[in-house]
Design a protein that fits this description.
The protein has 5 helices and no strands. By secondary structure, it is mostly helical. The protein has one domain. Keywords: Membrane, Transmembrane, Transmembrane helix.
Length: about 120
């Protein structure tokens, strides 16, 4: 029986975080982003990020949901109004945002570690 080495652990963590991030990104886009876009448009404001080919807007929405609006610069507030996002979220959106954010961070760190240690 073969023992699991560090490379296997690295691959399992990176692969698992990629799967979780992909599922969370899809669910976040279908449920939370759709709800937030609808609420913002109903207030008479234009939808944030009109051009969104790969759903990068999901990450723009996760930042104001997770972190305080005070950490945003004027440029970021012009892209997406943090107050519009914060007033239309619930606990489900916060949990899903944390799952998307953490799985994305873990996956990016695995990629960077693999690149630095030349594991590919």
């Amino acid at each position: 029986m073969r023992m699991i080495d560090w490379y296997d652990v690295y691959v399992y963590i990176g692969g698992f975080s990629l799967i979780i991030m992909s599922i969370a990104w899809l669910i976040f886009g279908i449920t939370t982003m759709r709800k937030l876009d609808k609420a913002i448009v109903e207030e008479g404001k234009p939808r944030p990020c009109q051009w969104d080919p790969m759903w990068w807007r999901a990450h723009l929405y996760t930042w104001p949901i997770i972190f305080s609006g005070k950490s945003f610069s004027e440029l970021e507030n012009r892209i997406i109004d943090t107050q519009d996002v914060k007033k239309n979220i619930n606990t489900y959106d916060k949990v899903l945002s944390w799952i998307l954010f953490l799985s994305n961070c873990i996956m990016i760190n695995c990629l960077l570690i693999g690149w630095i240690l030349d594991l590919y």
